[in-house]
Amino acid sequence: MSGVVVLAGGTGGAKLAAGMQQVVGSQLTVIANTGDDVEALGVHVSPDPDLCTYWLAGQIDAERGWGIAGDSFRVFERMKELGAPGWFGLSDLDLATCLERRRRLDAGDRLTAIQGDIARALGVEAAVLPMCDEPVRTRVRTPDGWREFQEFLVHDGAAPPIEEVALDGIEEARPTPEIETALSNAEAIIVGPSNPMISIGPILAVPGMRELLAAARAPVVAVSPYVGGEVIKGPTGKFISAAGHADSVHGVINVYAGVIDAIVIDAGDPAPDPESVASTRRPTLMSDADARTRVAHAVLDYATSDGV
Ligand code: FO1
Hints:
- The protein is α/β, with parallel strands linked by helices.
- 39% of the residues lie in helices and 19% in strands.
- The strands form four sheets. The protein has a seven-stranded parallel sheet, with helices on both faces. The chain has a three-stranded antiparallel sheet with strand order 7-6-8. Strands 3-4 form a two-stranded antiparallel sheet.
- A hairpin with a 2-residue loop joins strand 6 and strand 7 (145-148).
- Helix 1 runs parallel beside helix 2 (47-56), helix 1 (11-24) packs across helix 12 and helix 4 (92-106) packs antiparallel against helix 5 (111-121).
- It binds ligand FO1.
- Ligand FO1 binds next to helix 2 and helix 6.
């Protein structure tokens, strides 16, 4: 297998990427959403590229879903004592990643180079590429006004009604040369089972990204984030409904219209087969490393089959 590209946001996409790395190793490139990035506690936090990196490095705190397994929060606890805001935590080793990123950004390095070096230093075989080098920030309009994405998700617990989503800075963003190369060399391009609106949406919104996907010789195959008809984690259904789509795999297919050639639907999803796009049904629950590798194999087999 030559190149495989996985578009990913948080947990779902990162888990599939971890399984895919087991299957294709260094042939994998992950393109990660940076719309969730936030300046917090004096550092630049880049949740989705970091979650992907920690999953690929086998270091993620899988139960919590973010940060590093077995890590402490000593610096964060002391910062809170000193008066820092306490709603957004960073474990100590995660803070080290963010400090190093801040140091390199201040030195004028590209985010792509920084994330690449972080992933390599942590022993990751795959390439982890941020969706662009330019700053893009997802914001959510609620009845109380605009909220930074992490404020909405973590501080507000994603509870307020969603009136609008904006991607600040997206007009200035461009796919990087590394992304262009990975997409044009890919044999399969997989849209991971992440939130289509706020995890994958910003990647697709980078001007020029849809054109690169359309021009790629590889099929573009999405994996539905609905498992047994439900989303396992996060406010995916709420964002899909707020955009006027069905809270089901059919909403996902609508969001990806014109982008994907096919979709993998969970074998236990009660939704009827779609008519607008090729599909297959496979088990997609990724509860442990074996399941993640099995799902990655199944997705790749389908993406490279004659049916797509
Ligand atoms: N999620 C939380 O629910 N609470 C936190 O305090 C928190 C801190 C955090 C720090 C670094 C990081 O990379 C992720 C963090 N997350 C936290 C998760 C983050 O909000 C989400 O994983 C993504 O933005 C969604 O993909």
